[in-house]
Write a structure and sequence with these properties.
The chain is of the alpha/beta class. The chain has one domain: Glycosidases (TIM Barrel, Alpha-Beta Barrel), CATH 3.20.20.80. The strands form 3 sheets. An 8-stranded parallel β-barrel has the order 1-2-3-4-5-7-10-11, surrounded by 6 helices. α17 links the parallel β10 and β11. α2 crosses α10, α5 packs parallel to α7 and α10 runs antiparallel to α11. The longest helix is centred in the middle third of the chain and has 25 residues. It is globular, with a radius of gyration of 21 Å. It binds 4-nitrophenyl beta-D-glucopyranoside. The site of 4-nitrophenyl beta-D-glucopyranoside has 17 residues, from α2.
Length: 496
């Protein structure tokens, strides 16, 4: 039973890739500078009781274009690298694709109604770049713009704040063909042009913009491990260059949105921070977790928030380090208005006398997990991720841009879905988030991933992340028990 002995990392190649990245940073982080001293959290007793969130805390759900829209060939939409990848036999479980997905493109009004029944106050969705620029650049496609315009209007008519993400992995295939996609700086510049156009067209009605979703995931899995589109396995130097172009695209887009928005826009990334959790909370372990978080995110959030690659990152990369200029570093670190973090799993650490000053503890073999094999349970991450953003980088506005879990839901004979596991997940995660807000960590809102069951990348339709169940044969939507739990959470603005 060798299989049963593998760790979470071994069982899922995607997660393994991310952990490998984490390990690489850890091994070479000897020259890591001392982290900012961890200030004692400000107690905020009495403000919201033991369960309540701050007044004005924003609750919402999240989706992404390729995972929900379908209509892949309609109204002039161009082909994306995910169309190409999913249409390549053997890449996705059962060769499933996002061609139809959950047909959000045609059913968005129904879906906004569902959000309303949840009491959701915001919706994080992504704009498909190939709907706007079928070839990546050039003349915008009016029908693509029109779809998102109708969606935004529908949301506003229902008092739901739109939070678009400009890139959730569906790069126009034309850019991949023309210059190797993110392997080229040209893609970063094309992205900034597209972001500027979106700001111009939508900033009259949209206030918040997320730039790129999970740079760490699409770069490592798409260009490093051949697990996500475009399915490449680049050598170290080229992969570092792709990482650099992703963060550059983020920074250039922040500037482009600011320059072309018709009124003040709020802009930030939505990154899956690798969140070091001190397995035992002592001062030295907490300091180690802060060191680890800086280094494990060196190529992504750390360079965005600090404007430089850490010494340890550059030393580890050696001759394979990315090529960059000072101006590019400045662009990458263009100030953001908020930081969004997607939080799914913890990275357990403890202090170590040896360099790099922390040790990563692999989860125990019997550590509980959700239905996605990579998803070990660790609600503490929802406390530590925002606390690290505040304590390490002094981030003043934080959104949890994704948090949720994969399950194997069953429909009972009476047609209901009793997902007690998702409710358990939510209650424990939100209790940890509440710990953060109680200590004055500036978390402004929470987006649950996801509104609906949807296309879960290489897992196809096999793992369900929705508060709302989708029957993939009929596309009928049925709110799960967790939808009622979420609605009660929003209604009381509290852990329930
Ligand atoms: C995130 N992994 O993706 C994405 O932002 C969502 O599109 C996705 O549906 C959600 O989390 C749930 O998976 C990830 O294998 C996909 O390590 C895979 C991994 C991590 C994040």
């Amino acid at each position: 039973m060798a299989k049963a002995r593998t760790t979470a990392a071994d069982e899922n190649p995607s997660r393994r890739a991310l952990i490998k990245l984490a390990g690489a940073g850890a091994a070479a982080a000897g020259a890591a500078p001392a982290p900012a001293q961890s200030a004692e959290p400000q107690a905020d007793p009495g403000q919201c009781g033991t369960r309540g969130f701050p007044q004005g805390f924003l609750w919402g759900t999240a989706t992404a274009a390729y995972q929900v829209e379908g209509a892949w060939h309609e109204d002039g939409r161009g082909v994306s690298i995910w169309d190409r990848f999913a249409h390549t036999p053997g890449k996705i479980r059962n060769n499933e694709t996002g061609d139809v997905a959950v047909d959000h493109y045609h059913r968005y009004q129904d879906d906004v109604r569902l959000m309303r029944t949840l009491g959701a106050q915001s919706y994080r969705f992504s704009i498909a770049w190939p709907r706007i620029f079928p070839d990546g650049v050039g003349t915008p496609n009016p029908k693509g713009l029109d779809f998102y315009s109708r969606l935004v209007d529908e949301l506003l008519a229902n008092s739901i704040a739109p939070f678009p993400t400009l890139y959730h992995w569906d790069l126009p295939q034309a850019l991949e063909d023309r210059f190797g996609g993110w392997q080229s700086r040209d893609t970063a510049y094309a992205f900034a042009d597209y972001a500027g156009l979106i700001a111009e067209k939508f900033s009259d009605r949209v206030e918040h913009f997320f730039t790129l979703n999970e740079m760490a995931t699409f770069v490592e899995l798409g260009y490093g491990q051949a697990i996500h589109a475009p399915g490449l396995r680049l050598p170290a130097a080229e992969l570092n260059q792709v990482r650099h172009h992703a963060v550059l695209a983020h920074g250039l887009a922040v500037a482009a949105i600011r320059a072309r928005a018709k009124r003040a826009a709020k802009i930030g990334p939505a990154e899956n921070l690798t969140t070091a959790v001190p397995t035992i909370e002592s001062d030295d372990n907490i300091a180690a977790a802060e060191r680890a978080t800086r280094e494990l995110n060196a190529g992504y959030l750390t360079v965005i928030l600090e404007g430089r690659y850490t010494d340890a990152f550059l030393k580890a990369a050696g001759a394979d380090a990315p090529k960059f200029t000072d101006d590019e570093l400045k662009a990458i670190a263009t100030p953001v208005d908020f930081v969004g973090v997607n939080v799914y799993t913890p990275q357990y650490v403890r202090t170590s006398p040896a360099a790099p000053g922390y040790e990563i503890l692999p989860p125990a073999r019997s550590h509980p997990r959700m239905a996605s094999s990579w998803q070990i349970l660790g609600p503490e991450a929802l406390y530590w991720a925002p606390r690290h953003l505040r304590n390490i980088w002094n981030v003043g506005n934080i959104y949890i841009s994704e948090n949720g879990c994969g399950t194997n839901d069953e429909v009972t004979p009476d047609g209901s879905i009793s997902d007690t596991d998702r409710i358990m997940f939510l209650r424990n995660n939100l209790a940890m988030l509440k710990r953060a807000t109680s200590e004055g960590v500036p978390v402004r809102g929470y987006f649950h991933w996801s509104l609906l069951d949807n296309f879960e990348w290489t897992d196809g339709y096999g793992t369900r992340f929705g508060l709302v169940y989708v029957d993939y044969a009929t596309l009928r939507r049925t709110p799960k028990l967790s939808a009622a739990y979420f609605a009660e959470t929003v209604r009381r603005n509290a852990v329930v």
